[in-house]
Amino acid sequence: MNLIITPSNAAIYGHDYTNASATIKIKERQGSTKVTIKVSGAKPNHLHTVWYKLVLSGSPITGIGATPAAPTTQIDNLMMDAGTHVARANAFYTNPAGNGTLKVDLNFPLSAGVYPFSQYNSDLPDISTSNSPFTFRVISHCTDNVQHGLVPCLHEPTFQISL
Question: Could you tell me the residue ranges of all domains in the chain?
Fold first, then answer.
């Protein structure tokens, strides 16, 4: 699957990013999923994170309606990254032209329609994704350029990808 996406919020802090675009490539194989998201013409030199939208019950760890688009094996690392400028797991920086890429190998199939929190901790439930079977949101951390671990915090949504 390969899709081209236009911005959901082109005006970010007074700058016009209406020409920004994103592509997503998804390859699912043997219980895992490779996801590549490329953005171009977005806010230059900024941290972006990618989130996997959950249904109303939200994450059993944070209680919010999204979780990082990252394998369950990275949850502890994401908690340690909070408050840093580290870009790993679900994060990438754009270059001076506003281009950037996230490549992530999820340890679960997206087509299952759940985020498998039980793979991280067997006491946690797996949570269904939103609607279609899933929605990704790419956000820019324009206000602070800082990673916030398992919560999106201060950000501007840039792209919403619903499949």
Answer: 2-162
